[in-house]
Design a protein that fits this description.
The complex is a heterodimer of chains A (298) and B (308). With 298 residues, chain A is mainly alpha-helical. Chain A is 73% helix and 0% strand. Chain A has one domain: MetI-like fold. In chain A, helix 5 runs antiparallel to helix 6, helix 5 packs across helix 8 and helix 5 packs across helix 12. Chain B is mainly alpha-helical and 308 residues long. The chains are: A mainly alpha (298), B mainly alpha (308). Chain B: This is Nickel import system permease protein NikB. Chain B: Belongs to the binding-protein-dependent transport system permease family. OppBC subfamily.
Chain lengths: 298, 308
């Protein structure tokens, strides 16, 4: 609403915009569960960033040491060792890098493709809208994990293909969300005002509609990262994800499956970490949703 | 009402055509030559070329797709590259196992999810509510396949009460059905609770209370009927997912269902089998969704009246 003055848009909006997000954060900070989730995610991100400092990649997370295989948790190996004698804690630390990267990039791909399609469909309406949304319905008819499996099996398992497959498989939900917000914004007065002073469609969509349609996308994106991490683990579990020896939570789990009888810790800890990560993202996503919900504003 | 069902069935046709197109295109992009795969690595080039011609692999993309749809409509998806059996016969022989598991899973999910959701909503912020909400949150955050492995660890490895996998007696059903059921239960609990909370705040509930209807009748007769309408959708969606998306759970428990058939087919690069299973699952999923929508229209008079 502040952006009705088209020509000076960039100058006065910057400080104002930041305060909107500060406001959201202030509201969210009252939600203990959401802050708990945020804290866990910050720890995970720091772990991923400083993974090499915590445990050297080649020597500890990759190099096999068969003399020490399948050892239980001890002072030397906090979470024990896996079937190749590698330290599970170190592999989980490096796995955080993979999971977070896949999660964020995959969601980025979904938002980019889905958001663009949804914005175009909602803004132009009519035939274009119909064609795009019917195509999305078709994608929705295939369960997303199945679509991801089909895409990865066709393209071959690699980090990039995995991100692409998971990203594409959740495009329709973002298209729907963005379309719905664009539809509600399209006919508002400030858009009309922008059009009246001669702003192009591209400028209206990118400068005026997108920033205002961001809130639901951010919520869905947070929950989407959780979904993407789960899908990655699932695909790796059936051998279609990150290939060994690279440390990935799902494939670590799958590797330990054969030794369930002798070494419980190999499957237990990666799964526990996946669960904690997803839990944290869900808490944060729910908290963001509440904080961004205009109905709850005092 | 008939008009509505008919229109929905009609709308399914383009969706299914689209699904076959997507699946076919994805498989078309798969590197590797099927003819070479059938004949083996060492087959002479001319033989491979002859088979390619015979299988129509040299035809343009759209022609191949047209043929695929034509055959698919007659249920002909070709033969498996590995077993040489008709792929559809194979899928149908596996489907009962998946259907049984999904049904039992949904049954467990509904049996837990709906009562817990209702009690949570009627006793909002009570200890019961907090505990069940935390449990539900953990339930939706847990990877299904990991939960399956943990159940195996506890009930098969340590306690030795139940088999860790395979198909057969009732005992074999318990762990996989629990794995699927509890994670769906978590979703259904959350949905039931929030839907119930929304309904309880409505004016007509306050009216019912004000005129002295006892709390039990208010919940059971007035609130529940309306609160359960959105829950039906979630239950239906979960059933659809379990029919198709139980791929990982079936793998964990060596369950001879459609999901594991797909995973095995992918590992063996058995293209006709992969195509047929994905199409089959998508079709099943679409029909379940259609069924849910129709059921929805039946239980919600507001929708029903639109199509009279």
């Amino acid at each position: 609403m502040i952006k009705m003055t088209e020509t000076q848009a960039s100058v006065p909006t910057t400080p104002k915009k930041r305060s909107i997000w500060l406001e959201v954060f202030r509201r969210m900070s009252k939600n203990k569960m959401a802050m708990f989730g945020l804290a866990i995610i910050i720890i995970l991100v720091l772990t991923a960033v400083f993974a090499d400092v915590i445990a050297p990649y080649e020597e500890v997370a990759i190099k096999q040491n068969l003399a020490q295989r399948l050892q239980g948790p001890s002072a030397k190996h906090w979470l024990g060792t896996d079937e190749f004698g590698r330290d599970i804690f170190a592999r989980l630390v490096h796995g955080a890098r993979v999971s977070l990267k896949v999660g964020i990039v995959a969601v980025g791909i979904s938002i980019l493709i889905g958001g663009t399609l949804g914005a175009v469909a909602g803004y132009y309406g009519g035939k274009i809208d119909n064609v795009i949304m019917r195509a999305m319905d078709i994608f929705l008819a295939i369960p997303s994990i199945l679509l991801a499996i089909a895409i990865v099996s066709a393209l071959g398992p690699s980090l990039f293909n995995l991100m692409l497959a998971i990203g594409i498989s959740s495009v329709p939900s973002y298209a729907r969300i963005v379309r719905a917000s664009v539809l509600s914004l399209r006919d508002q007065e400030f858009i009309e005002a922008a059009r009246a002073i001669g702003a192009s469609d591209f400028r209206i969509v990118t400068k005026h509609i997108v920033p205002n349609a961001l809130a639901p996308v951010i919520v869905q994106g947070t929950l989407g990262v959780a979904g993407a991490i789960l899908s990655t683990a699932g695909l790796s579990f059936i051998g279609l994800g990150i290939q060994p020896p690279a440390p990935e939570w799902g494939s670590m789990l799958s590797g330990g499956r054969a030794y369930l009888r002798y070494a419980w810790h190999v499957t237990t800890f990666p799964g526990l970490l996946i669960m904690i990560t997803i839990l944290a993202l869900n808490l944060l996503g729910d908290g963001l949703r509440d904080a961004l919900d205009p109905k709850l504003k005092q | 009402m008939h008009k509505y069902v008919f229109r929905r069935l009609l709308m399914l046709i383009p969706v299914l055509l689209g699904v076959t197109f997507i699946v076919f295109s994805i498989m078309y992009m798969t590197p590797g030559d099927p003819a070479q795969m059938i004949l083996g690595e060492k087959a002479p080039a001319e033989a491979v070329e002859r088979l390619r011609e015979e299988m129509g692999l040299n035809d343009p993309f759209l022609m191949q797709y047209g043929r695929f749809v034509k055959n698919a409509m007659m249920g002909k998806f070709g033969r498996s590259y590995t077993t040489n059996r008709e792929v559809f016969a194979e899928i149908f022989s596996r489907f009962p196992a998946t259907l049984q598991l999904a049904s039992l899973g949904v049954l467990i999910a509904v049996a837990i999810g709906i009562p817990v959701g209702i009690i949570s909503a009627t006793k909002q912020y009570s200890l019961f509510d907090s505990i069940s909400m935390i449990a539900a949150l953990i339930g939706v955050s847990m990877p299904n396949f990991w939960q399956g492995l943990m159940l195996i660890l506890l009930f098969s490895v340590y306690l030795g009460w139940l088999p860790s996998g395979g198909y057969g007696g009732f005992a074999n059903f318990i762990l996989p059905a629990l794995t699927l059921g509890t994670s769906s239960a978590a979703i259904i609990t959350r949905m039931t609770r929030s839907s119930m909370l929304e309904v309880i705040r409505q004016d007509y509930i306050r009216t019912a209370r004000a005129k002295g209807v006892n709390e039990k009748t208010v919940v059971n007769k007035h609130a529940l009927k309306n609160a359960l309408i959105p829950v039906i959708t979630v239950v239906g969606l979960q059933f659809g997912y379990l029919l198709g998306g139980a791929v990982l759970t079936e793998t964990v428990f060596s369950w001879p269902g459609v999901g594991r058939l797909l995973v095995d087919a992918i590992k063996q690069k058995d293209t006709p089998m992969v195509q047929a299973t994905v199409v089959f699952i998508a079709v099943t999923f679409s029909f379940v969704n259609l069924g849910v929508d129709i059921l929805y229209a039946f239980v919600d008079p507001r929708i029903k009246s639109q199509y009279k």
